[in-house]
Specification:
This protein has helices spanning about 10, 20-30, 45-55, 85-95, 115-130, 135-145, 175-185, 210-220, 240-245, 255-260, 275-280, and strands at about 5, 35-40, 60-65, 70, 75-80, 100-105, 110, 150-155, 165-170, 195, 200-205, 230-235, 245-250, 265. Helix 2 (about 20-30) packs parallel to helix 11 (about 275-280) and helix 5 packs antiparallel against helix 6. Helices cover about 40% and strands about 20% of the residues. The protein is globular. Helix 10 (about 255-260) links the parallel strand 13 and strand 14 (about 265). The longest helix has 17 residues, at about 115-130. It is α/β, with parallel strands linked by helices and about 300 residues long.
Length: about 300
């Protein structure tokens, strides 16, 4: 394989939302062997750069579920935005339903204050009724995330600067009814593509945006055939690149439907599944972990 694309959350990142030493070392080894490695994520580009730098890796980045592509030096190779009228209608609907959302742009992330407060209340309520390490990590991660400089709280979507390119709108809720309502509504619209990246969210983007399409564009830029690419992921926003890549690899902690459609399954994210897959490819061995049982810690 000449190009290896990895998802971030639930895949390259461990349960502490960090790139493990094992995964970082494997990426560096692959690069030294001449294999191109790229990160493909729903996160905004600037967020991924910070995580990559902390983890000691430097790769091209497919961000916002494929709406942006940057090379390893930070040069933007491609982007595809939601037009402002469509984006406004999406965000207005979410505000009317009091559903928390984040609009990813090249200027950072924008979140409406009212829905932000609703989300904090939902998380605190869940923490109080269902205490546990997983829930506590989710609450702490959410609060820490919104202390970052690139996250801007605004009165409403009308306050997002006109010069901001809106790449992706991620809605998040701990309320099952709100999730069901939002997913049904946006999956029925033809002016946006709706994807799910984990159990409590749904995301809207341009209909032509997907990780798979972005991987294809990056491969073309690098003069690499898609047959010579591998992609690894754990959730539904990874489906397009898992199907389009020459080798689609599911994480051991992937959703059952993702594992069913993949050509190979590696270990879980807490077991450094990305490193295991990379070493297997470099050594010409089949990706056959000793265990493919979903780890609760990897969720």
């Amino acid at each position: 394989m000449k190009l290896f694309a990895t998802d971030l959350d639930g895949t390259l990142l461990n349960r502490d939302s960090q790139i493990s030493r094992e995964n970082a070392a494997a990426i560096q080894k692959a690069q030294q062997a001449g294999m191109k490695v790229a990160i493909a994520t729903g996160r905004v580009y600037s967020d991924v750069v910070a995580i990559s730098r902390q983890g000691g890796v430097k790769t091209p980045i497919i961000g916002s579920n494929g709406a942006t592509i940057h090379d390893e030096n930070g040069e933007r190779l491609f982007h595809l935005t939601l037009d402002r009228e469509t984006a406004a209608s999406v965000m207005q609907w979410l505000e009317d339903q009091d559903i928390y959302y984040e609009a990813s742009t090249q200027m950072g992330i924008y979140a409406a204050i009212s829905t932000h407060e609703t989300m904090l209340a939902e998380l605190e309520r869940i923490l109080g009724s269902k205490p546990g390490e997983h829930i506590e990590r989710m609450v702490l991660s959410f609060k820490k995330y919104h202390d970052k400089k690139n996250c801007h709280r605004v009165s409403s979507h009308l306050a997002i600067p006109a010069e901001a390119y809106i790449y992706n709108i991620m809605a998040f809720s701990m309320n099952p009814e709100k999730l069901r309502l939002g997913r049904e509504y946006f999956s029925s619209r033809t002016d946006v593509a709706m994807v799910v990246s984990f159990e409590h969210n749904f995301e809207m983007q341009h209909p032509d945006v997907s990780k798979g399409n972005a991987l294809s564009k990056l491969a073309e830029h690098l003069n690499i055939s898609m047959k010579e690419t591998a992609a690894i992921g754990d959730n539904f926003n990874d489906v397009s690149m898992l199907l389009m890549a020459g080798l689609g690899i599911a994480m051991g902690n992937a959703e059952p439907e993702i594992r069913a459609l993949a050509k190979a399954i590696t270990r879980t994210n807490v077991e450094h599944g990305v490193a295991y897959a990379i070493h297997s490819l470099l050594e010409g061995k089949p990706i056959a972990p000793t265990e493919t049982i979903v780890s609760a810690e990897g969720q």
